[in-house]
Amino acid sequence: MSKVLVAFHSRTGYTRRVAQALARTLQADLEAVEPVRTRSGVLGYVRCALEALGRWEPQIREPSHDAEKYDLVVIGTPVWFWRLASPVRSYVTRHAARAPRVAFFCTMGSQGSEAVLAELARLTGRAPVAALALTDRDIDRGYAPRLDAFVQALRARPPGRRGRARRRAAAVAATAG
Hints:
six-stranded mixed beta sheet; single chain; 6 strands; 7 helices; Rossmann fold; alpha/beta; globular; 18% strand
């Protein structure tokens, strides 16, 4: 497989668990997207809500990996209030939008993945190679088959139009649950 970076933000640990599993499986580098200001506690939760609803781009710590130097950047985000997590929005607009190929995954309490995955595609300016949406419950109960399907979609690189259709079908299969 080509050179892969898994970049993610995680407030509660669910997105981190999936990102770490992906990085291990893909033998990829791992980049934790960290905001400068904390998101812990009640005030952090309120900050998350305001930033997500307002589609703000908070200041984040400088990444240690250059997304442009990777063949594929897998971007992982929690869903905050049916929106993209603000630190990930900052990362994508400042760094990952230059990546040659992208894939997305999101974790959530229950809903919001469609809007978040669509926003990631809009911000990067490209369709993902594959996409995966997992609820916290999925992660707690075991999500290995869906993660395996996502990884297979990432590894598939068939040429031409049929390849795009296969990747799109694989992305839908990985997201369906």
